[in-house]
Design goal:
mainly alpha
Length: 89
């Protein structure tokens, strides 16, 4: 009787292949409570004095290859066709 509780091994219980979700639910409830307590603390506003900027906004970048040409280049690359020289940068 060194390794077992029961003396007779003839009445084995059937194997249970179901997942015990009770510990999982307990952990989820604890995490829910932690986040419910921590959420109001995360909404505290902190006033930051930022320096004023004198920089002008950058001009919009003009692409040298229009969007239609970019799609054309992608299709030619995908089909392994040579790219025309006029689209090379």
């Amino acid at each position: 009787m060194a390794g077992g509780i029961r003396e007779s091994h003839g009445d084995d219980l059937p194997e249970n292949h179901e997942i015990n979700v009770t510990p999982f639910i307990d952990v989820m409830l604890v995490l829910l409570i932690i986040f419910m307590v921590a959420a109001p603390l995360a909404t505290v506003d902190v006033n930051v004095d930022l320096p004023a900027s004198t920089a002008k906004p950058a001009a919009p970048r003009q692409d040298s290859v229009p969007k239609i040409a970019a799609v054309l280049l992608f299709e030619r690359f995908r089909r392994r066709k040579p790219i025309p020289a006029r689209f090379m940068l």
